[in-house]
Model the fold of this input.
Amino acid sequence: MEHLRAVKSPPEVALIQQAIDITEKGFRRILPFVKPGVWEYEIEAEFAHEFIRHRSRGFAYTPIIAAGANSCVLHYIENARQCREGDLLLMDVGAEYGNYAADMTRTIPVSGHFTPRQKQVYQAVLRVMRQATQMLKTGNLWEEYHKAVGEVMSEELINLGLLTIDEVKNAPEDRPAYKKYFMHGTSHHLGLDVHDLGHRYRPFAPGMVFTCEPGIYIREEGLGIRLENNILITETGQIDLMANIPVEPEEIETLMQV
Ligand code: GLY
Ligand code: MN
Ligand code: MN
Done:
């Protein structure tokens, strides 16, 4: 089953795409809705409404709606805080459709505008996501992929002034320095389960669908940013199944101004 489920047939990809398209509708709905004073659970309710009215049965997994310092708590699911001016809001939310899951993360500014520092860290995460996506291709191996993404991330963290070159160089191989700010994996299989079955030593192959979800979590600044898209591996490269979901900071700011 592990081998069968890792490679999706075209009808399975179509169902994942449907789950993603419904997730996109939810995201576009909440962008003009989020304002200082709104509660995390109110945003969760907006997503639920939009999902169900598009014939999803609801969330593919318990959603994370995390404002301010909560964005640094990886499995924050209480969704019980009020969003405040100046907070970032991290949302890890996906619809289910026909038993298949979407798994999206977006991070937006509650006020509708990123501060220069928030945008600087956001752009770093976005660059890592873009580079990691390019490495999701046929023949690559899970472990080497994660190592390569770690190197890209380390460079970004050095440029942000969060790590020094020496800290990166001198860290033991099994405890790389970047883990202080990026302490989870970059990708997992996606399908019937959000964390779908797949063998870690099997090379990437056409039909596999992975998440790509780098993040930078700076607890001392109460600032956590993760971006997560879902990627289909093809014979010749990959297709970003979430290419239509806004991710550029300027587009997000524009869509929030209503
Ligand atoms: N939503 C769970 C995950 O991103 O892995
Ligand atoms: Mn997720
Ligand atoms: Mn994920």
Remarks:
- Residues 10-30 form the longest helix (21 residues).
- The mean pLDDT is 97.
- Residues 36 and 136 are 37 Å apart (CA to CA).
